[in-house]
Write a structure and sequence with these properties.
Layout (H helix, E strand, L loop, with lengths): L18 E5 L5 H7 L2 E4 H13 L13 H9 L3 E6 L4 H18 L2 E6 L19 H11 L15 H12 L5 E6 L2 E7 L4 E6 L6 H13 L3 E6 H6 L1 H18 L15 H13 L32 H7 L6 E4 L6 H14 L7 E5 L2 H13 L6 E4 H11 L12 H14 L8 H13 L5 H7 L3 H19 L7 H12 L1 H10 L2 E4 L7 H11 L5 E5 L14 H4 L1 H4 L4 E4 L2 E2 L4 H11 L11 E2 L15 H12 L14 H13 L4 E3 L8 H14 L6 H9 L10 H9 L4 H6 L8 H15 L5 H10 L3 H9 L8 H11 L5 H18 E4 L7
Parallel strand pairs: 1-4, 2-3, 3-4, 7-8, 9-13, 9-14, 10-11, 10-12, 12-13, 15-16, 17-18
Antiparallel strand pairs: 5-6, 6-7
Helix pairs in contact: 3-4, 4-5, 6-9, 11-12, 14-19, 15-16, 15-18, 17-18, 19-21, 25-26, 26-35, 27-28, 27-35, 28-29, 32-34
């Protein structure tokens, strides 16, 4: 960044390429015009471009970035001077950076800013962003230090200012450095291949001593010797640094066997120039692409062609997304449009631009998706790129900081009720909080509002809030006492650590030069903050998502997070994928007709890439059994892999699985459709234990006393089962138990009386009804399901079981349930886990 001597008016730089000049002095607009600048009032730019762009909200009429008029204006108006900038609030700084400075940086423009404050004098504490630290100041200062994006001398890839200084000094000594030279997965700032010498320019933002030590060791194992110069050393005396390089070369020549290949002073054009030539030769026009550095193992001086050979099989929209700018890129990817293909190709493109593979992080929604993506990267030959979940990334950050505590801890329904009772009793005006509500509200405090125990206690005002604050404190105390970690803490604690500790933040920002995020529409506020901090200060960020597929609103996901990303990053480049490769024409058309009724969305098209028409049929079924039988008829003549059956709930899917099994059709499916667990297994235990108590099994006794909790002492099920098999009643069996706690006795006696009454019920349907009501199964499952709000089907299944059991005895229906599980298990070829369930 250039500084202006007091009273002087700078001329635009004569060379091609970007520059940033920041002045706190009042410069005469007429003098700036005379010097060659195009002069604009910042106030006018705000009124004309920025305020209209910020007013769009979610009511979008096109996919176009609202800031596009300003971005187009910046392209045609270089060099420009923006005068009259006032920086009073963090929002002022965000607007200047997001709408003016960062887009100019990406486009390599000559930019002059006159402000009421010097950039270096901005008080970081006064400009803390909603991200939780001076996010914009750090990004602005980083960009100002790297504000040179135009072609480098001799057709080299783009170099930083300190790299340019050292390069010029080395060339002045008749040395022949090769810039941005690839050595395996590493990229050297400069290399001398004849003596295997690497020269590194250590700018403060991009070098970590420990990582450099590991990198140097790896290069030495390959026979290379690295030497380092700090940015201050180069700035102070670049000639002295070049002399040190010359001495190192002389020393290496005396001790190293020279490679049998010529050293060529590189005239290799940057990938941008070569790609433009290729596009012009094929399409006769120029493409607007981002800037980046090239890393290659090719021989120096050899034109290796455009780096995007891996885009040959991509469609036009996918290719545009992959080849987009180096800044923030948003890919809108409807179902089946090849988003994983784009992620993998983008990773390869970034590597070609000089980003080391081990500094690319692909963040995915869950472990199954991360495993799948890692497999795709490996299949494409992309080694070293990380693919991890948000939680795994947060856990890695906490582990390095030695902040992890033991295993992940999850409370049961009963444990949450115990804490809720304690919180109500300990709060002067305490109120009762249901266990599911307590769990959800504490999760929202961590991942939605991102408040610690003390922070929430300070702002809690109502009795409900004060009770929740007490419960939050009790919950965190239990975690600390047991040396356990809350799963939410992997994100929450990592975010808070990065917010408060600048050194830790800079370390992880240096670890990840580029961040690629999948399923962006499903992330939570805390996950979004984690990504924003890790991608800063360079903001080499790719997000892939589709607002029409936002499924997790109950867990703080939001379509606004996709639609309004251009308000967080005004200079982003947006691309929409438009071809569905998964489904035939009629299915794509039908789904588009439904999706277009969404109100908060981008208006976009999706077309079928496949040519077959396909078929959409609506069939009315009288009951679930009829649905299963109809599904079996539809797929009976198909080969494995030709059909997939989707259902809204486990209950529906299980009935379809039964229909397939009864028709002798083998299939793949999730573990839970076997119904060896969950409410079917619980009901089967009740039917066996109450229908034939003389044959009682210890495992069935354990189940009927635990679900719901009837306070049977630990390891007492064997004694109760033995007593029942000996002909005793339930009341007598529990009455003979040795119970230490007096409060258990009335609970056990109550359960014994209930079970003795229910053993007299012969009809399965009546027994199920009484278990749902008197036995408390409906209440138990209704409460427990609120702790896991996916697939709330347990009570529905019990109602269905009650209807199905009409006319059957208890023993008969127990046999029917057992048969059902056996036949499904026999025809279930293999268990799979969907990525949404992992």
């Amino acid at each position: 960044m250039a500084a202006i001597p007091t009273g002087s008016v700078p001329a635009p730089p004569a060379r091609e390429g970007g520059s940033l000049t920041w002045a706190s002095t009042s410069l005469d607009p007429a003098a700036l015009l005379k010097a060659g600048w195009r002069v604009y009032s910042y106030r006018d730019l705000r009124e004309r471009f920025i305020v209209p762009a910020q007013s769009r909200g979610t009511a979008r009429t096109s996919l176009e970035n609202p800031a596009k008029p300003l971005l187009d204006f910046l392209v045609v108006s270089s060099p420009i001077a923006v005068v009259g900038v006032s920086l009073g609030t963090p929002a002022d700084l965000r607007d200047l950076y997001g709408f003016i400075v960062e887009p100019a940086y990406r486009r390599g423009l000559a930019l002059l800013i006159t402000s009421d404050q010097e950039l270096d004098d901005l008080d970081a504490e006064a400009f803390v962003d909603p991200v939780g630290y001076p996010w914009t100041i750090e990004r602005l200062r980083h960009v100002s230090s790297r504000f040179r994006l135009g072609p480098a001398p001799d057709g080299l890839p783009a170099l930083t200012p300190i790299e340019l200084l050292l390069y010029a000094a080395m060339r002045a000594r008749k040395l022949a450095p090769i810039a941005q030279y690839g050595i395996g997965k590493y990229r050297a700032d400069f290399a001398f291949t004849d003596v295997r010498l690497v020269v590194e320019c250590d700018g403060r933002q991009w070098h970590d001593p420990e990582r450099d030590r590991r990198r140097d060791a790896a290069l030495r194992r390959k026979g290379w010797e690295p030497i380092h110069f700090t940015g201050s050393e180069i700035t102070r005396d670049a000639a002295a640094c070049a002399a040190s390089v010359a001495r190192a070369i002389t020393s290496r020549r005396a001790t190293t066997v020279t490679e049998q290949r010529p050293v060529v002073i590189p005239v290799r054009r940057s990938w941008r120039v070569r790609l433009m030539d290729w596009l012009r030769s094929h399409f006769g026009k120029r493409a607007q692409l981002g800037t980046g550095n090239v890393s290659s193992d090719a021989e120096p001086g050899l034109d290796i062609g455009p780096p995007a050979l891996w885009t040959a099989d991509l469609d036009a929209e996918q290719r545009a997304a992959v080849m987009s700018q180096d800044g923030v890129v948003q890919v809108i990817a409807p179902a089946g449009s090849g988003k994983t293909t784009v992620l993998v190709a983008r990773a390869r493109e970034l590597i070609a631009r000089g980003v080391p593979p081990n500094r690319i992080l692909c963040c995915t929604f869950n472990a199954a998706a991360a495993t799948e993506l890692k497999g795709r990267l490996d299949q494409a030959g992309v080694e070293g790129v990380g693919a991890a979940t948000f939680h795994a990334t947060g856990r890695r950050i906490l582990k390095r900081a030695e902040l992890l505590r033991g295993d992940v801890h999850t409370l049961s329904y009963a444990q949450w009720r115990r804490l809720a009772k304690l919180a109500m009793d300990e709060t002067p005006d305490g109120v009762w909080i249901e266990a599911p509500t307590a769990k959800d509200q504490i999760s929202d405090l961590k991942l939605g509002r991102m408040l610690t125990v003390d922070e929430f206690a300070e702002i809690a005002t109502s009795p409900a809030e004060r009770t929740l604050a007490t419960l939050y404190r009790l919950y965190e105390g239990e975690l600390a006492e047991q040396e356990r970690t809350d799963f939410d803490d992997f994100i929450f604690q990592a975010v808070r650590l990065l917010q408060r500790d600048g050194e830790v933040r800079r370390h992880w920002q240096g670890e990840f030069t580029a961040v690629l995020v999948d399923e962006y529409q499903d992330i939570e506020p805390a996950q979004e903050l984690l990504i924003q901090m890790l991608a800063a200060p360079e903001d080499l960020l790719l997000t892939v998502g589709d607002e029409d597929q936002c499924l997790y609103a109950w867990r703080r996901a939001s379509v606004e997070r996709v639609i309004e990303l251009d308000l967080v990053y005004p200079g982003l480049e947006r691309h929409a994928l438009v071809r569905n490769y998964r489904c035939p024409v009629r299915i794509v058309d039908a789904s588009r007709g439904v999706i277009e009724n969404n109100r908060r969305r981008f208006p976009k098209q999706i077309f079928a890439a496949r040519t077959e028409l396909g078929e959409v049929r609506l069939v009315a079924a009288s009951d679930l059994e009829a649905q299963g039988a109809h599904a079996a008829r539809l797929v009976k003549d198909l080969e494995q892999g030709q059909a997939v059956i989707l259902a809204r709930t486990t209950r529906v899917l299980s009935e379809i699985a039964l229909g397939l099994a009864q028709a002798g059709i083998r299939f793949f499916g999730p573990e839970r459709i076997k119904r060896r667990s969950g409410e079917p297994a619980v009901l089967l235990s009740y039917l066996r234990a109450l229908g034939a108590p003389g044959q009682a099994r210890p495992e069935d006794v354990n189940t009927i006393f635990r679900i719901p909790n009837r306070f049977l002492p630990d390891d007492a099920e064997d004694n109760v089962a033995s007593a029942l098999r000996a002909g005793q009643t339930f009341t007598a069996a529990v009455g003979r138990l040795r119970v230490r706690e007096d409060w258990r006795r009335p609970k056990l006696a109550e359960a014994g009386r209930l079970f003795d009454v229910l053993t007299q019920v012969s009809g399965a349907s009546e027994l199920i009804y009484r278990l749902r009501t008197e036995g408390g199964l409906d209440r138990h499952y209704a409460d427990a399901e609120q702790l896991s709000p996916i697939d709330k089907s347990a009570v529905d299944w019990l109602v269905h079981a009650e209807d199905t059991a009409a006319g059957m005895s208890v023993v008969e229906f127990a046999g029917a349930l057992d048969y059902r599980a056996n036949i499904i298990e026999h025809n279930l070829m293999a268990v799979w886990v969907s990525w949404r369930e992992a």
